[in-house]
Amino acid sequence: MNILFLVYHGFSQESGISKKIHQQVRGLRQNGHQVHLCYYDFNKQGHRCRFVNCNIISDYGSGRLAGLFSRICYGSIYRYCRQQHVDLVYSRSFMNASPFLIHLFAKLRRRGIRCVCEIPTYPYDKEVSGYCLNDRLALLIDKLFRKRLARQMDAIVTFANVDTIFGQRTIKISNGVDFDALPLHQQPSEQDSALHFIGVAEMHYWHGFDRLVAGLGEYYQRHPDGRRIYFHVVGWEDYRGMSNLGYPTIDEVTERYGISEYIIKHGRLFGIPLNNLFDACSFAIGSLGRHRCGIDDIKTLKNREYAARGIPFIYSENDSDFDDKPYVLKAPKDESPIDIDAILLFLDNNPAPASDIRKSVEHLSWKCQMAEVLKSVVTVVP
């Protein structure tokens, strides 16, 4: 099959979303298909361009008009699909439904090209709560046109446990992992009496890392001479929406409890430095605040990456791939500080070899997950 994988933004080396997209493309190729990656970025001259496999298919120029043209002119995508005899367009929603995208996908469908759209998080309306006017306006436009756009799809790919989205049938899969990119976790030396936690995310208010920091603050108030526990925070913290919605930042909670020496912020890490930090830690922190944006069921990429590395972890949402696993601790879906004593008890009573944790998620490779998408499209669509 000849597949165009369509995204509406560019990539960065440290972005988990960027890594995920490239892993999905690799998963499709591992299933024996030819895949063209189409994306939007700037060229060396600063022009806004649309690329396919690093080749420019449309140069919109520079300035404000170029930004507008990039959002309404999709003819280059249609021409490329026609010239390259594309069979399937796999697009990744960017909360950007519009009449122009509806027109593009209607033309693709009339030509006999199958189309599916991945919605990374559903429902997503509350994710921009408290954000700036431009973000809220983008959501409003999306809400006006997303049902009509969904009708132009053969299916919606989702990681949520729902049968339809915007009136369109869903293909339910799990977020996958690239095992080659994630080395097996090495247990820290027992000579270090301190315990180290790690949380990796492009942090938004729904990640709820403030709950873990508050839990550490409560722990040190109860056990001022207890075991030393450190929280290593990796990634960029997006403060939009936090103060407007009443959720504290990590720094605010750290200052409130006076535990700055135990909260270590590393910024963005990837590659060997990130792998080395994982090996210094014994426990990982998943999302602790998905309830804040109205999400109960989700299959996050981070849970799968933690499991693929072979490190135990905590989260608060429902995730059917992990809810019954012995190496997972479930947190309550509320605003309570995380119980650090419960984590210590869990780690003492649930030793799990990294190799066993990793083996339990071998079926979650991107090759297997993308195969499920293709099987559903081919068997249901004539």
Give the secondary structure arrangement, pairings included.
Blueprint (H helix, E strand, L loop, with lengths): L1 E5 L9 H15 L3 E9 L5 E5 L2 E7 L2 H9 L2 H9 L4 E5 L6 H12 L3 E6 L13 H19 L3 E4 L5 E2 L2 E5 L22 E6 L8 H14 L6 E6 L7 H4 L4 H8 L5 E5 L4 H8 L3 E3 L15 H9 L3 E3 L12 E3 L9 H10 L4 H6 L6 H15 L2
Parallel strand pairs: 1-2, 1-5, 5-6, 6-7, 7-9, 10-11, 10-13, 11-12, 13-14, 14-15
Antiparallel strand pairs: 2-3, 3-4, 8-9
Helix pairs in contact: 1-13, 6-8
Please tell me about this protein's structure.
By secondary structure, the protein is an alpha/beta fold. 36% of the residues lie in helices and 19% in strands. A nine-stranded mixed beta sheet has the order 4-3-2-1-5-6-7-9-8, with helices on both faces. It has a six-stranded parallel beta sheet with strand order 12-11-10-13-14-15, with helices on both faces. Helix 1 crosses helix 13 and helix 6 packs parallel to helix 8. The radius of gyration is 22 Å and the shape is globular. The mean pLDDT is 93.
Q: State the helix count.
A: 13
**Overall mean confidence score, pLDDT:** 93
Helix residue percentage: 25-40%
> What is the CA–CA distance across the termini?
14 Å
Q: How would you sum up the global shape?
A: globular
Task: Let me know the number of strands.
Answer: 15
Strand proportion, as a percent range, falls in: 15-25%
What is the SS-derived class? Answer: alpha/beta
- Are there runs of 5+ residues with pLDDT below 50, and where? none
The radius of gyration over CA amounts to: 22 Å
- Strand order within the widest beta sheet: 4-3-2-1-5-6-7-9-8
Largest sheet: 9 strands, mixed
Order of SSEs: EHEEEHHEHEHEEEEHEHHEHEHEEHHH
Query: What's the oligomerization state?
Result: single chain
